[in-house]
Amino acid sequence: MTLPPGTKATGAPVKIGFITAEGGSAISLPEVREGAQAAAAYANDYLGGIGGRPIQLVVCKSQEDAASARNCANQMVEQKVTAVNIGTTAFADSMVPVITGARIPYTTGVAASGAEFVTDGAFSWTGGFPATLGVMARTAKDKGYKSVSLFVTDAPAVTAGANALGKPVFAKAGVGLDIVAIPLGTPDATTQVTSAINKKPGAVILVGDGTFCTSVLKGLVAVNATQPRFVIQPCLSRTVEDAAPGALDGATLFTPGDTDSDDAEAKLYRTVMGRYAPKTALDGYAVTGYQNLLGLVRALKGLTGDVSPASVTITLKAARDVVLPAGDGLTFTCDGTAIPNLKALCSTGSVVATVRGTRATDYRTVDSASLFGG
């Protein structure tokens, strides 16, 4: 795919904060930052940046603990950024109050923590963890599963979300949900997997980073588990496949991003990454940073005049039917109506695909609005 001629950004830069999990002992995802940097470069060269001005990313690498997350949030306030974009984190509850308390808009592609769901001034292009759980519940119902085991990282925000949001939507779908929390960085989850599989669930769900996915998949192989597998984007990487060969084949992938198909947005993703981040693997979580940052740019397309935290917030709240980058046709609207009791979430859809080897095929979109009363 060739990028069509566009508009190059000029003038004083707009400072956009970018916080992501990188450099920590348990989780480090540099590809998320690289995806965001590629999206920013593309936006500056072809889309006129934000309000016609070039984007200057102010990057802070969180170690995925409450202290470093809060430190990054404070840095954004000190740097007087116009908005903050989040790469990926399970510690948003430590950041959202600091950032929105300074009246700086907090934006992400996939909300995972309670404060990201409901805080005024926070925006998530997708329905985040709640919508993913909803789409998983709907899929489990459609496949006739009576119960499922949900393996999640044992981080407070994740387990709280799984209980508070997962239990109701799975119950509404008529599917039992057994939540299995596994400590961050666990190399061998066979004990937890054995306990869960002994309950004979109809399927198993993995929600965590690549290391987590490897640990759980190895456990599933060790106990000869035959249950169908539901996974999220971080599981779909060469590293996971090399560590647990064949364990993902046939799995159902729930993801905000389509990176492999012939859809125009998937082609654009591959083209932009090939030009601006040619050494970054296109599988795994690189699409998250790309999607999060480019989603912000698209949502602010109509912004004119002064580019400030206040004008950005107003423009985001007025955003309607914005095409989600690499979203296989999904759009988002940030007026607080997608999931009324979770007003920061801008959509209820998710992309679902089937895993073959290390590639996803048969991409389709599924909506979960009915499970949230929509």
Q: Explain this structure to me?
A:
Helix 1 crosses helix 10 (264-276). The relative contact order is 0.15. The protein has helices at residues 30-46, 66-79, 96-101, 114-118, 128-142, 156-172, 190-197, 210-222, 238-243, 264-276, 286-299, 309-317; strands at residues 14-21, 55-62, 83-86, 106-108, 122-124, 147-153, 176-182, 203-207, 229-232, 252-255, 322-323, 331-332, 349-356, 359-367. Strand 11 and strand 12 (331-332) form a beta hairpin. It is 37% helix and 20% strand. The two termini are 38 Å apart. The strands form 3 sheets. The chain has a 7-stranded mixed β-sheet with strand order 7-6-8-9-10-13-14, sandwiched between helices. It has a 5-stranded parallel β-sheet with strand order 2-1-3-4-5, sandwiched between helices. Strands 11-12 form a two-stranded antiparallel sheet. The chain has 374 residues and is of the alpha/beta class.
Cα shape: globular
The biggest beta sheet reads: 7 strands, mixed
Order of helices and strands: EHEHEHEHEHEHEHEHEHEHHHEEEE
Rounded radius of gyration (Å): 19 Å
Distance between the termini: 38 Å
Unreliable parts: none
Mean pLDDT: 92
Number of DSSP strands? 14
What percent of the residues sit in helical stretches (DSSP H or I)? 25-40%
Beta content comes to: 15-25%
Structural class: alpha/beta
User: How many helices does DSSP assign?
Assistant: 12
Major sheet strand order = 7-6-8-9-10-13-14
